[in-house]
Amino acid sequence: MPHVLHSELTMSGPEQSMLGGALLGAGLPAEAQRHLELAGRDFQSDALAEQHLREAQSLAPDHAAVLIGLYRFYFYKGRLDEALRVAEICLTKAARDNGLDANWRKVRRSDAEFSSFAAILPRFYLFALKAYAYLRMRVGDIDEGHAAIEKLLELDPSDKVNAGVLHDVWRRIGQVDDD
């Protein structure tokens, strides 16, 4: 699979600040926040950073900030199977928080305000599905990843979450990289 920078697949500044303020920080216990900060500080020590993330998770197991912290840790450490498990948890949480079907294949564009930049929870769903799609492809489940990309493009036809980048990657799979 051609290399794609993860930064192409993450949130932009405005998206991150919106999610950060309205979704990620709300309701997070101070002690869990402290452990997230310590995990960031100790990122180079895998064991210590992961211990802090697990402490945060024990204090706020279903909080988006904790889940995203775990996802990023596993992703950047190259622990893609674990990152995928966290992405699946995020997708389940986002479906529940949006009142959507638990099976992403059954979700329809009319089920939530997927096209609205201001609709925080639907955007979190889209980002969780994007992470899921990307990681499925990275672990070799190309068909599942492609199906999730197609669902993203159906839910977000204006492609606010840049699923088109993933679609381009999918189209290039198996082609010789001239770079």
From TrEMBL:
<protein>
    <recommendedName>
        <fullName>Tetratricopeptide repeat-containing protein</fullName>
    </recommendedName>
</protein>
<dbReference type="InterPro" id="IPR011990">
    <property type="entry name" value="TPR-like_helical_dom_sf"/>
</dbReference>
